Amino acid sequence: MTFETTFPVWNKLNSSQQSKLLNTLITQKVEKGAIIHSGTMNCTGLILVKSGQLRAYMISEEGREITLYRLFDYDMCLFSGYCIMRSIEFEVIVEAEKETELWVIPSEIYKSIMDESADVANFTNEIMGTRFTDVMWLIEQIMWKSLDKRLAAFLIEETKIEESNKLKITHETIANHLGSHREVITRMLRHFQNEGIVKLSRGLIEIVDEDELYSLVD
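Above: the chain's sequence. Below: its structure in token form.
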């Protein structure tokens, strides 16, 4: 796939705007674990995932992480280009969860095109609305859902992403996604194991009773 066939509003741009994007577009390949954007200390640019998987998260004053949302093939991250949206004042970190290929549109270039094109501005607002919906959904989960339900939902999501009931993931990683402590996640997973829902081994969680996981979420 090329950038031209992936960027959703490419056909709404005029030839000058298309040339401006292509001439300034940055192509990157990053390894798993690489930090692509960190807080408000830099304005990385707008990220469009060509292939791979990214995670956007925040860190509390106590040092606990929590995942805001994840990005997959052809998803776009606007928070990494926060400087084109001055109203954004919270710090978001973007990390590669897998080896990832991506395109980066320099923020100043994207902003200049957005100022010229109503279609690009509308598209940007739609993406921003989607991301804020993700964040509001997360807040709702934290406020109203117990940790066992959130953990069950996370395990279900992981099996879909990895297309496997055997998840190579640590308890620490799960805790970082859910904004919890490793010890708490370990206790909850051991409870799941005692209930026959999962089977635990070092660095591996095997889903044994997927129906029970779904019933926990419901």
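Residues 3-143 form a domain with the Jelly Rolls fold (CATH 2.60.120.10).
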